[in-house]
Amino acid sequence: MYKAFYGLKEKPFSKTPDPRFLYMSSGHREALARLEYAIEESEIALLTGDIGCGKTTLSRALMDRAGSRYHFLFVFNPRLSADEFLRVIASGLEIGTPSLRKDELLNEITGSLYRMHGEGRIPVVVIDEAQLIPDRELFDELRLLTNFQLDDRNLLSIVIMGQPELRGMLASPVYEPFRQRISLSFHLSPLSLEETLEYLDFRLIAAGGDPGLFTPDAVQCIYQLSGGVPRRINAVATNALLVGYGRDAALIDASIVTECAAELVN
């Protein structure tokens, strides 16, 4: 449909977290740099941001840039009991059939961590949507995982990502022992107006097209509708391309964005 009309090889505003389409705003650059430092030092890092700000895509970019010596374990649904969580970690550490007994399970995890260290591999546990973690016990298990260490470093890194309410949750005094283990913390903010323009052009180029398809007044409308949140920008921009294609419009202007905005609301 609109791809051929606008000279695109791929959909520029897909919702999938493809690192090729990760626009590195100043905030994204700083967040990625901090995450890279955290895994190099085998520390706990906390990354928060509104829904759709690019946290998951950043984690994919981190994995792509980290190199083969890092072994990533992703936990996408942290609504788990502490024992379930440990078994997920054990499976990610290449333990074929994790024990149902906690003492044996911890011994298996310990053995796997030391084995990976001997092989020159560093496990990185990435927990997405961490605001959904149901209780303190799981955070306690996370904290205790960092007790696996040598004299000079931990044997694994932990990256915790979640929505802004995660910070409020962790501010409770009961989480003080866990907070003390967090060495790096960053909040990912929405894009500015200028960054929204750069984001649109960046993704058009990444999809095989040309920049400048969205006029300045269209960019202003998209920014106002999306609040600078990349996932919302994608939704508005995709609908604008569909409307523009239907109009045979060579450029996407504010009238097209306004029309698709009404469709999004309805």
Automatic annotation (TrEMBL):
Domain AAA+ ATPase: 41-186
Xref: SMART domains: AAA
Domain of life per record: Bacteria
Record's signal peptide: none
Pfam families linked: AAA_22
GO molecular function: ATP hydrolysis activity
InterPro entries reported in the protein's UniProt record: AAA+_ATPase (IPR003593), AAA_22 (IPR049945), ExeA_AAA_ATPase_DNA-bind (IPR052026), P-loop_NTPase (IPR027417)
PANTHER family: GENERAL SECRETION PATHWAY PROTEIN A-RELATED, PHOSPHORIBULOKINASE _ URIDINE KINASE FAMILY
Protein name: ATPase
